[in-house]
Amino acid sequence: MSSRWLGVGFLAPALVAVLFFFLLPVVMTVMFSFTNMTTATGITGGEYLLSKSRLRQLEAEGVSEETVERLESAGYQITEQGLAALAEEFGEDRADELREDYMGESFTARRDLERVLRNLNDDPIRRTRDRKAAADLFAVTILDERFPTEPAFRDALTESGIDPADHDALVKTAYTGWTWTTDNFKLLFELPATLRYAMNTAIYVVFTLAFNVGFGLFLAISTFYLPQHLANTFRTIWFLPRILPPVMYVLMWKWFTWDTGFISTVLSVFGVTPINWMTESALNAWTVVVLINGFVGASLGMILFSSAIKAIPLSMLYASEVDGAYRWDQIRYIILPQLRWPVLFMTSYQTLSLLTSFEYILLSTEGGPGGSTTTWALAAYTTALRNYGGNLEYGFGAAYALVLVIIGIILSVLYLRFFNFKELVAKPRIEQ
Amino acid sequence: MELKLEKFTKRFGTTTVIDSMDLTVNSGEMMALLGPSGCGKSTTLFAICGIHRMNGGRLLFGGQDVTTVPAQRRSVGVVFQNYALYPHMTVRENIGFPLKVQRKAKAEIASEVGQMAELVQISNLLDRRPAQLSGGQQQRVALARAMVRKPDVLLLDEPLANLDAKLRLEMRSEIRRIQKETGITAILVTHDQVEAMSMCDRIALMRDGKIVQLDTPEGMYRNPKTQFVAGFLGNPPISFLSVTAGDTLSLGEGLTLARPQGLEASGDIVIGIRPEHFGPQYGTGLEGVISFVEPQGREELVDVRLANGQEVRAILPVGDPLKTGQHVNWGVATDRILAFSQDGARL
Amino acid sequence: MTGNLRIWPIVLLLGIVSAPLIIMYVFQVIESVAQPQPGTLMPGEINLHNWRFLWQELDRGRPSIWTATFNTFIFATTIALAVCALSSTAGYALSRLNLPGRPYFLGGLIILHAFPTITLIIAIFIVLQYLGLFDTLLGVILVKAALELPFGIWIMKGFYDTVPWEIEMAGVQDGASRFRVWWELVLPQVKPGLAALGIISFLQGWSEFVLPLVLAPGSETQVLATYMYSVIQDDAKLDFGLFKAIGMFYSLPVILVYLIFQKQLMNIYGGGTKG
Question: pLDDT by residue (tens digit) across A369-406?
């Protein structure tokens, strides 16, 4: 019993972390993808606000002409709120007189209210400008006024005497927050860019993966035949890209490929005009993107495959040499068959990781030139989090991300079958 | 302290490994739990430790029910097969750990560790780490650690399995000496009948989760209750022959043996002849051809193939040169023949 | 081994394919202190002009490199500590303790381990805003540590699995509670693994770029990765010398750690990290 509680206690902090930063985000990605959430709508609920500029569109949205006019030509009403404001600016006496004689009365035009103010018995407001300002204190228009909740807004509509038939349409128009919608997915299917992102992703994954595995194999096998110190030197050279910070690693590539960089400088000796080899053409951009990722990925392959080769009994290799096998035969018949599982493992893991990663592309080509190296994951990121237009489309970005989340879940569940799960869950041997 | 298991039952999932087993170990006694692998002897040991929970029955230490007492609060010392010494602690810290857990004073711990080290004769090794010790020394440390808090019961799980042959002999007598000196109640779990017979006061022979016989080593050897017990004890092992019991025991092909006194069964039965009860010193009676000779220094093992195709083994002092293929006619100590029914029960 | 096979063709081939990397490394080091003429590769004058970011303001409004360095250090250290602490407990629970629903936790762990967490960044961005932790160092630390956890727990579980059960059984028999057994007997056995995990997590934190970029874009919370990125983005003159000096400064701890712990790193990186 005691170990059960110890176990729960030991696991709880990790579970909380997982809950907040894995499960909650997964659920929220699904939710957000069904909203029109953007920077403009905000991420919490919105307010209700009818702006003057929206009035013109209202008729197109099926609001009756009468209602629009009513909203436009707002009236004036003597209310406690207005009187309080009047008392503040124009004195208690005037407010008291107005309260006594006109409390609750409405005026359609400001002129009428101004007349009343001019004719106050006690102390009329003489200056026209003051009268205008005083009258405005009693304006009851709901235009440009913010209402925090829907009921408050509906009450205001009713008070203004607006036809109840138009309430729903007005509420909808006035809402500034996000709403539920399936438009994101419609848009996703309609946009021609979507297909392009998918194609780009396919290119990116296939070529990088091929490079990673192929080059990883090459490095592992070739360093295997070298003396220890030489092998270690080359392994270090290839391992560094893996642990160097990505910003730093990509900087070296920028220096290597940009127009003031290495390639251009060397080629200029032969009279070639310096160009930015990284972003000059789609083909160049792809080559660089694949190489940047590939050099990092190949080092993982190198490590995995090297340790698999080391596990081959030396006697087996010696035996094959005694038999007079050539190096190529040794690789083909002894080493490569041993690498089947590591290759499969690396392929499956990297497929998923390449499908969803965008860090190196963001740092190098930023998806260019002209979006030619924008993968699905990068598109999700730029749509939701890095849109220079100023409006970040969280909802639409989440719809892109959701596709990746679903692929991720499916593939990870498939990988679960790779592991020997039975052995993994072998029961604890101390039963207490 | 007397240890008593009553109707002990253990299940793993849906399979019942031990069903309602009873066992009493007397105070100061060393008891062997002997049996082939998978017979449930280790499961029994783990249940006594408290590492496994019992699914049924009771466990009593000196009359006190400890069935639900957690392992930490049972007074049980255990020596594990691989010793399970704590690799990051010195020998001194290893032996002192149980006392440290009990929050004893430092001086007290030091003196008790010293005494214990003297008992198991490792006083000169106290500052080493387990990795710097030989197998036998590790064994002694494990023993000292198990005994340092003066437990009611000492459990030894295959303690000699990881030692080479010479050390095994040495530790066999060492463990017995220490057990006798301290007078502790001990249970030895082993699959090795020689260990069980040489070290223990009594043996509980287990098979398929049941105790098939509980007796002193001599009693069990001379008087096995079943064919399984007879076959399990004895090295070199007993030879079994199928015979038909009538006026004599007929082995077929004209071979016969005299009926042992007191045998009442008739018809097809199985008899067991231990190697030391067959040979030229018992006269003649069984004719056959030597099929195999294995010299063992002082003695040699001789397999004799009878005319009916069955084999009988003899153990003889080295003397006359015996050769494979040689024709012999040797006798059997009739009164020591063990007879079993065909389902293995003793007759 | 295989002394009868000539090695120079292999060395030559490896040298050629490794050339771009070698060139990058060499010029990275040289040009961090050199002032080459535009259009040449000759180092020219050697001085510390490129390292001026250490003692003077680069642009107005940009935080000092020392702020960013301090942030990065706090970021990486806290992550390493949090990952080590939570992984060493959770890994032990999954490896050794009787938990209700343990198989499900283990299955979940494997799925999480393979799952590409970067896909969740949009939702995490908004979750942090809800929690009021957006653009704070604490927020990014929590997220990064949480995302590193499945890997950490997985690694630690693997280390715990190799500790013999008998050691724990002996501890329990010696009267120690399960907690004490873990703390005094088991944890010391996995210390090398824990240290390796700490180093890896530190390096991961030190190098992390996307999370701080998205979740802590403010200048007060800048880490070296985002600092360096913004210097490169904002500089119209492409002062590669400056960039390289900053890069050197940023990468030095990584290279030092690599040189010291080379062996452990190779092993754990081979042991099931994501590409």
Answer: 888 899 999 988 988 888 566 778 888 888 999 999 99
- Contact across the interface for C114 and A411, Cβ inside 8 Å: yes
Look up the CATH number of the domain holding residue A219: 1.10.3720.10
According to DSSP, the residues that pair with B327 across neighbouring strands are B289
CA distance B49 to C170: 10
Q: How many CB atoms lie within 10 A of CB A279?
A: 21
- Quick check: is C66 in a domain? no
CB C169 to CB B76 under 8 A?
no
With the C-alpha atoms ordered B17, B22, B26, B31, is the resulting torsion angle positive or negative? negative
Residues of B in contact with C185 (CB under 8 A): 86
Of A120, A136, A152, which residue constitutes the final position of a domain?
A136
Whether the Cβ atoms of residue A338 and residue A316 lie closer than 8 Å to each other? no
DSSP string over A218-261: HHHHHHHTS-HHHHHHHHHHHHHHHHS-HHHHHHHHHHHHSTTS
Asked whether residue C208 is domain-assigned, the answer is yes
Q: Which residues contact C155 (CB under 8 A, 6 or more apart)?
A: C87, C91, C193, C196, C197, C268, C271, C272
SS3 content of chain C, % helix, strand, coil (to 5): 75, 0, 25
Q: Tens digit of pLDDT for each residue in A13-33?
A: 999 988 888 889 999 899 888
> Is B50's Cβ below 8 Å from some Cβ in A?
yes
pTM comes to 0.83
Burial of residue B241 (number of CB atoms within 10 Å: 0-12, 13-18, 19+): buried
Task: List domains and CATH numbers for chain B.
Answer: 3-231 (3.40.50.300), 236-340 (2.40.50.140)
Classify residue A15 by burial, with Cβ atoms within 10 Å: 0-12, 13-18, 19+.
middle
Residue ranges making up the domain that contains C18 = 8-53
In a domain, A331, yes or no: yes
Complex ipTM value: 0.89
B chain contacts of residue C169, beta-carbon cutoff 8 Å: 49, 51, 78, 80, 84
- pLDDT value at position A318? 74
- When pLDDT is averaged across residues B320-342 and rounded to a whole number, the result is 87
Instruction: Judge whether A205 lies within some domain.
Output: yes
Domain that holds residue A365: 191-392
A359-363, B313-317, C218-222, range with the lowest pLDDT: C218-222
A320: its two tokens: 């094959």
Q: For the sheet with B15-25, list strands across it.
A: B15-25, B3-12, B56-61, B64-65
Rounded to a whole number of angstroms, the CA Rg of chain A reads 35
Apex C90 CA angle, C88 and C93, nearest 5 = 105
